[in-house]
Amino acid sequence: MSGIGVMICGHGSRDEAACDEFRHVVDQIAESLPEWPVAMGYLEFARPIIRDGLDSLRARGVDHVLAVPGMLFAAGHVKNDVPSVLNVYAKEHGLRLDMGRDLGIDAKLLSAARDRIDAALQRTESDIGLDESCLVVIGRGTSDSDANGNVAKVARMLWEGIGFAHAEIGYSGVAHPRTEVALERATRLGFKRIVVFPYFLFTGVLVRRIYEAADMVAARHPEIEFLQAHYLDDHPLVIETFVDRIRGIRGGDVNMNCSLCKYRTQVLGFERDLGAPQESHHHHVEGIGTDGGHHHHDGHGHHHHGNGHDHHHDHAHPHEMPKLANGAAGD
Questions:
Q1: For the chain, what is the radius of gyration of the CA atoms?
Q2: Which of 156, 219, 306, 325 has the most crowded CB, counting CB atoms within 10 A?
Q3: pLDDT tens digits along 208-222
């Protein structure tokens, strides 16, 4: 036993399908890292919680944990809530715990997104070209403008990289424009086809609402072809990106983008958040929701998680946060 173990820190969801999808991804991550035990836990709404996953690693002789957030971008959960839970646990148990960075904007994830969009285009028999097509990318939406800006950047890179005539962005919650507004805006631009792509890892209430909104807007505009692309899910390049983040911890590749972090920099419109204290606000929903998998904490086929993000809250990032080893908690 090397003493090293891997912890995947998920958001959590009441949605069973989201939990099943994340469990499948964690299984594949574990298969890619046979040298280390892999566990996972949820921040909220499902079991095992993060502490349960850490307990299971310690029971297997792990004293050095490589932890990564199972989320796309570094908003409040990644900048504040997850590292807060990890720091408290590490202090209680004298555990060495290094946290890696978010998945972020990554060439592999962009390629995975391209494949999902290409698959949607291949399902149609129409001869509408990309020069008459508009891509609409829908992100989660948070109260962190930097994370919201990442969705816009992803949309721009997919627009130019694939060759669409145009791209619009929308958000499923918190940020604007919301999904239906963004889609209606796209219908007024004169394109013959609109491709709707939820930039999410997994299914959940919000992803289903995106597809439902697309159906409603499409019904109001029968003159436009609407195509719905699948979210990222278990694409092999998603698994590779997770593995890259985990292996990157040992190589010091842990720094998140803090140059525009509203908790460390005075960002326009969010000045009140500068230096807000680090603490998790999820104790009241920790472990509730789906009860599948609450007896299984091992990274080889027994995990449940969802990244459906079925609610709308974001929290603070520390101005001076307790250091995880190597300063990996978001420095």
A1: 20
A2: 306
A3: 999 999 999 999 999
Q: What is the spatial order of strands in the sheet that 64-69 belongs to?
A: 38-42, 4-10, 64-69, 96-99
Task: Indicate the DSSP class of residue 321.
Answer: P
Please enumerate in sequence order all residues whose Cβ is within 8 A of that of 188, keeping only pairs 6 or more positions apart, or say none.
Answer: none
> Going by C-beta distance under 8 Å and a sequence separation of 6 or more, which residues neighbour residue 10?
22, 40, 41, 42, 43, 46, 70, 71, 305, 306, 307
Q: In sequence order, what DSSP letters do the residues of 162-188 get, joined into one string?
A: HT-SEEEEEESSSSSSBHHHHHHHHHT
Global pTM?
0.80
Q: Which residues contact 60 (CB under 8 A, 6 or more apart)?
A: 1, 5, 37
| Chain centroid, CA 66 distance in Å | 18
d(CA 135, CA 197): 7
Residue with tokens 């939820």, as numbered in its chain: 198
- Ramachandran assignment for 258, one of left (phi > 0), alpha (psi -120 to 50 degrees), beta (any other): alpha
Provide the pairing of β-strand 166-171 with 133-139: parallel
138's enclosing H/E stretch is strand 133-139
CA 250 to CA 160: how far, in whole Å?
A: 34
DSSP code, position 327: G
pLDDT the model gives residue 255: 72
Q: Are 281 and 175 in contact (CB under 8 A)?
A: no
| 295-315 tens-digit pLDDT | 333 333 333 233 333 333 333
